[in-house]
What does this fold into?
Amino acid sequence: MRQLVEDLQTLEDKLRLGGGPKRIEKQHRDGKLTARERIAKLLDPGAMFLEIGLLIAYDQYEGQAPAAGVVTGAGKIEGRPAIVVANDATVKAGAWWPETITKILRAQEIAMRNRVPIVYLVDSAGVNLPLQDGIFPGQYGAARIFYYNSLMRRKLHVPQIAAVMGPCIAGGAYLPALSDVIIMVEGTSFMGLGGPNLVKGAVGQVVDAESLGGARMHTIASGVAHYRAKDDAACLQLIRERFRAFPPPPPPLEGSAPAKSAEGLYDLMPADHRLPYNIEDALERIFDRDDYLEFQPNHAPELLCADAKLFGQAVGVVANRRGFLKTESGPRIGGIVYAESARKVAYFVENAERNGVPLIYLQDVSGFMVGVDAEREGIIRAGAEMVETMACATVPKIVLTLNHSSGAGYYAMAGQGFDPTFAFGWPTARIGVMEGDSAVQAIHGPELERLKAEGQPVPQDLQERIARTRADYERWLDSRYAAARGHVDALIDPLQTQRVLAFALEIATSKGHREHLVLETL
It folds into this structure.
């Protein structure tokens, strides 16, 4: 675990440099702060910045799109949880890659679901034109951003503040235009449906950028922008002033410390992901020491359900036990969902929903039990009950993948398709339909059995195909692969687990709002 965390931190440090030192220097020469510098000045001093999607697209585009050219995450402004979206102009002038859209939409969804303000720090040259087919059209293309803008402004009443701190061109100009407040910076910001070159080619007018769409023009002539700031620092201060006009934020969460030190989490997971460990040891290092009570501890123990506290906030915990477990009905395999455990979780989740208690899922699941006995016990119906109660629950659902997250078990344990409020993973997370060895059996098993029955050796080409299958699955099951494709919001250092989960919970409960986002926006 220590090595995985060190490797992850090295990768993250590289990605946080964006386009690199030379691009950062150019940003400073242009009189502008970088995206990360802006965020640091905007957030409360010492406040946590929970970055979402840092690893997105890191392994694509030959490394030319670190963080997909946009920084997204959650922090506190004037004591209030808020979402921040900041274009990184050091990465291809802040142009939008296909994954940029994915990140912005995810940030907006978090703001909408939790009813927390969202701030856009705009500094973008617009669409990355060679990749426009993955950006412009489609249900989840760039238009979806403006759709969410409109829903937040007119229907959901989520505050949106847009600061144009650089270029904001073409359709991208609708992002600030659909916000509640627009701030522009003198001398560095531009907002227009077309830049000077496009205007000259389209209508034959020759005009400079400042006269066409600068801060003075939009705050004096057009009235499109509401405030004008002399520089980045003044702009960020204006945003903080707007936050001070909001109603007072709720008090931060407080509670007792965990029973054990977080340091032990580094030694929790075995080096071989197939070996068992004690999930209670993790819980004792994450949740408050007080008011912990396991639900039906002696029934279907392969799935642990418990009432707990996280920084004093009541939560329901659903976690997979690993290893072989003895029960009155016979031995059970930890990490597998049986009919009894599925029904147990369904009842526990129903109670949490009835009582308004947020749910935290700790995933280490290999799937549902199969076989004659499982089918006769109604595993399909029991699994459907587990999925249905989780899917229909309106309380916050926060997911942390510790190790395996496979098959339909991934879905039943609040997988991303079911809109969890946040989804995190440790560097040991392995998200996929199955493990590599199982895939080898599923894909190549019949051919291997035939060769064995015929007493024939495994030919070289089949050995190579088996090796490729295993290699593909190891790559797909790497936690960084999942993070690069948005399958988790962030990979976290186990030592930061309590802090990250507590902040995510604070965001999720700050408004006390309970409704399905998908239902509200239809």
